[in-house]
Amino acid sequence: MLNRYNKKGGFIQLLVLIETSSKQKQDQFLNLIAQENPLWEEAIKKKTITIERVLKWDPVYLSEIFSRLQPLTIAVAFRNFPPAQLEQVLNCFSSTDKRKIQNLISETQPSPGEISTCAMKVITEVRELMKLGVLKMDKIDPELLIPENIEESLNSKGHAISHIDTAIGETTQSKKPAASTGSHEAVTVSVDVPSVEVESFKKKIIALTNEINHLKSENALLKSKLEQIKKIA
Questions:
Q1: Global pTM?
Q2: What band does 56 get if pLDDT is binned at 50, 70 and 90?
Q3: 113 & 61 share domain
Q4: Domain range for residue 194?
Q5: By the 8 A CB rule, do 202 and 211 touch?
Q6: 171 and 117: one domain?
Q7: Does 15 lie in the same domain as 89?
Q8: Are residues 120 and 201 in the same domain?
Q9: Which of 25, 74, 133, 134 could form an S-S bond across to 129 if both were Cys, CB 3.0 to 4.6 Å?
Q10: Predicted pLDDT at 214
Q11: Per-residue model confidence as pLDDT tens digits over 98-139
Q12: Domain count, the chain
């Protein structure tokens, strides 16, 4: 599955596909991804936008998002949410619009498919506002920032860990006694790389990779700010 997305921009394409899929399909996609590369699955989960996650943001940003959506979309998308969260959404609107949405919730009986579709519209709108720079993720939810060349980073990290796991497996095999040759003496095979050192090396690789990803994220953020400064200038 990952082959078609293993290119620059492929991660965001896959992410949007999963975000706008039903819960059942999301789980199926994630299971397939986990089998191919667990690091991709972990990254997808961290970068996925959900309505529950959006509702944790500052009300100022929520107002910016919801003001761009139709009242019917809001009414259908949030109708089954707990009263406290529904009230949080309604507080983003004027008294007139708030009553309109409440009336729509009372008067309509959408199907599960329609509710899911409207929820996806909310997420799609959030992703579009992020793309346009209206929503600044470095201030709102930094974990949602997607580093440049994240595909290459995830694949490199995956290959590094795979090689280390292979080395550990070979080391473990080399520790096993040789097959009996009829002699009563046990034959011991020397191990060139102690497992403790291999495990330490594995941890260093992961730490360095995380640091590289962090630096790439900062670099992308600085580039974005520089472009904004140039536009103002």
A1: 0.65
A2: very high
A3: yes
A4: 150-232
A5: no
A6: no
A7: no
A8: no
A9: 134
A10: 62
A11: 999 999 999 999 999 999 999 999 999 999 999 999 999 999
A12: 3
Contacts of residue 148, defined as CB under 8 A and 6 or more positions apart, other chains included, come to: 216, 219, 220
Whole-angstrom distance, CA of residue 54 vs CA of residue 141: 9
Angstrom CA distances, 92 to 23, 83, 167, 189, stand at 27, 15, 56, 70
CA distance 4 to 10: 8
At position 51, the amino acid (one-letter code) is I
Buried b / exposed e along 203-221 (16+ C-beta atoms within 10 A)? eebeeebeeebeebbeebb
Choose among 65, 205, 208, 43: nearest CA to 134.
65
Question: In angstroms, rounded to a whole number, what is the distance separating the alpha carbons of residues 2 and 20?
Answer: 18
Using the structure block, give the residue that is written with the tokens 């959030």.
126
Which token pair is 123?
């997420």
Cβ atoms of 19 and 146 within 8 Å: the answer is: no
